[in-house]
Amino acid sequence: MTPEERVEAAINFEKPDRVPIVPLATLPCAAGILGLNLGELHKSPKKSLDAMLKMFDDYGGWDGANLMPNLKVFYNLGGFKVKVPGIDLPDNYQIQFVEDESMKIEDYKTVADIGWRRFVKEDYLYRITDMKKEDLIKAREEFWRMAWKATYEFLKRKVGIKLSVSYFHPFFTLSLQRSLIKFTQDLYYRPELVEKALDTMTEDIIQAGISSCKKTGFKWIFMPEERAEAAIYPLKIFERFWWPYTKRMVEAWHAEGLIVWFHLDQCWDLNIPYFKELPKSSVMLDLDGLTDIFAAKEILKNHLCIMSDVSASLFSLGTPKDIEAYCKKLIDKLGVDGGHILGSGCEVPPNCKPENFKTFIETGKTYQLSKK
């Protein structure tokens, strides 16, 4: 099978020739494994992309990847205030989101009226950065040059999941902009303001996702969320402020033949049953090790594909034998009838042992299901 055929077989519950392998091996991982200075990479889009491509090539490649490095400009253009190594932080630090309530209560109405992307472009970007309009033009040009270069490299390497579109969930976006505490207060004391903003943001993202995928010809949309789960909020909050908007996005994209890669951090055990309401094979659920992945498989079997959770601690502290054993367990228990993609629990960490990453890739490529 080609990587694309392998991934699509798993998503559609058809048995692939082997388990597809799709780690979140991002720029910090590449810097750590290759022994490069992360701060220096953040100063150069070209060096950043080259590092990620070198890691991909040195380890024989895998079946799906976001090869585009997430640099400061990527987050700023999305409306996120961040500090990055080599520019705002020491070279060996990781990207840090800044939650300082840059978004005010009155901004909810503006977002509800004109949408998040226009709000960022016309106003918010200049609050969270020191950019001027000419800087914004330059930043956008730099971003798209790197994006198209990365797209070219995707195609050359024939990866199965080619990520060209990525959006933070509207709920997660507002939480980061208002800060977790203030946003939680808004959910309880100003729910109508939040709902109106979420409504416009959801429609905005739906149309942007469809447009972007049509431009590239790709069909994957990456969406992280780590604050809507029952580990943080009671289900009544999830049911009112997250689930209806999620269903709307997924159903609209599914009607266009698009697939959502949900990256779900934290524990979603109580939320997993809701995902059965989504169209079959419309999303991949990428879990980070805090959710019981085997219970999730039982709930969602033959309905939604699960991306598994080799953890950061196992990559950094374990041995190749530990990695091999857990990968085999995942393949045995999750990969019998398709519906499983071998992945990393969140990002592969910057202190991942190279031999562990090598074992992860090789086990996925060579191990067949247990005959027991």
In short:
The chain is an alpha/beta fold. The protein is 53% helix and 9% strand. It has one domain (3-366): TIM Barrel (Alpha-Beta Barrel), CATH 3.20.20.210.
**Secondary-structure class:** alpha/beta
Query: Tell me, what's the shape?
Result: globular
How are strands sequenced across the largest beta sheet?
5-6-7-8-9-10
Please give the radius of gyration in angstroms: 20 Å
Number of strands: 10
The biggest sheet, with number of strands, parallel, antiparallel or mixed sense and barrel status, is: 6 strands, parallel
Query: Would you identify the regions where 5 or more consecutive residues have pLDDT less than 50?
Result: none
Strand content: 5-15%
Q: Helical region count?
A: 17
Question: What is the number of domains?
Answer: 1
* CATH fold-level label: TIM Barrel
Mean pLDDT: 94
Q: Percentage of helical residues?
A: 40-55%
Look at the structure and give the CATH class. Alpha Beta
Second-tier CATH architecture: Alpha-Beta Barrel
* Spatial gap, N to C terminus: 25 Å
Q: Give the helices and strands as they follow along the chain.
A: HHHHEHEEHHHEEHHHEHHEEHEHHEH
